[in-house]
Amino acid sequence: MEAIIKEKVQQAIDQFADKDVYVHLETTNGAYASHFDENAYNVGAFIRNAKVKYEHGKIVGSGNAYRVGLKLDLGWVYAEGVTDYELDHQNRLLMAGHDREGRLMVALEISETPFSHESVEQS
Amino acid sequence: MTQEHVVVIYPHPDDESFGAAGTIASYREKGVPVTYLCGTLGEMGRNMGNPVFANRETLSSYRKQELMKACKALDVDVRLLGYRDKTLEFEQVDHVAAHLQSILEEIQPTLVITHYPGYAVHPDHNALGTAAIKAVGNIEAVRRPELWAQAIATNYEKELGEPDIRHDVKPYWDKKMAAIETHLSQASGMMSLIKEKPDFNENEELEHLRYERFYRWNYNN
């Protein structure tokens, strides 16, 4: 992944508009948050392979964190805190936000084919 | 006499290295075969390497490779159970237990090591520990292996009492570190901690790594 280049991400978002796509959306602060800090809360959610169609989507923000919103017929897909992106070899748009230790805090991924359990091959 | 064989049942690639590498190494030194049944590929982990080199979709492949290297370093066999990270507690316990039992019936271990349900912090640890204990319990008593359960929660000693087994794995420290280091995507935080504070008695985290502790499961009551 590399730091977000807004124009490139917007282009990729546009390319998936009005198509049936699969979405992976996730946020997490890890399963050990309240183990290492008793005042912390374990919070997370993910949805994998939600099949949606969006009429349009946007990436908004500047500097080091962005928000992405996808407008559906009946609702929205939304992620905040996205910092990095990659258009992988299967032409999937992977976006994620990492903390300063490189840990994933949020992810939003869009693909025309379902996300699998294991990646076929890593480059 | 039954041939000794140890089976370790944990859900994530790296649980074996952080939790039991010293114990595993001590058995391998005696020539006892060890098999690791690894529940998932840790594909939902949030550590992506530091600096980041994995993403949500490639993480499973990296972690699978790391697991293979760790198992090679520890000289153990590994079998992948194929569940998905974070979802083990939502599987049917009986189904997972039956799956584990079929593998255990085949390997016929003398000792099974797993997590202590309710005291193992990560929901996957608790869920797979529950299934493993059930699986071993379903094996008829005369052939049933011993089971050791590992607790991790900060309160465990207060509630469960002193662990029955307390291995000081200092003699196997290099081996344990080598195993942990293979988990490149996950272990950078722990490795820098170790390098900053080589005297592991002074640090609670490192103390946990040095002493591998287990409770002997009692199936009689």
From TrEMBL, chain A:
InterPro entries referenced in this protein's UniProt entry, alphabetically: DUF1806 (IPR014934), YojF_sf (IPR036492)
Domain of life: Bacteria
Protein name: DUF1806 domain-containing protein
Organism of provenance: Thalassobacillus cyri
TrEMBL record, chain B:
Pfam families associated with the record: PIG-L (PF02585)
Cofactor(s), names only, from the UniProt record: Zn(2+)
Coiled coil (residue ranges): none
Sample GO molecular function, one term: hydrolase activity, acting on carbon-nitrogen (but not peptide) bonds, in linear amides
Protein name: Bacillithiol biosynthesis deacetylase BshB2
Species of the source: Thalassobacillus cyri
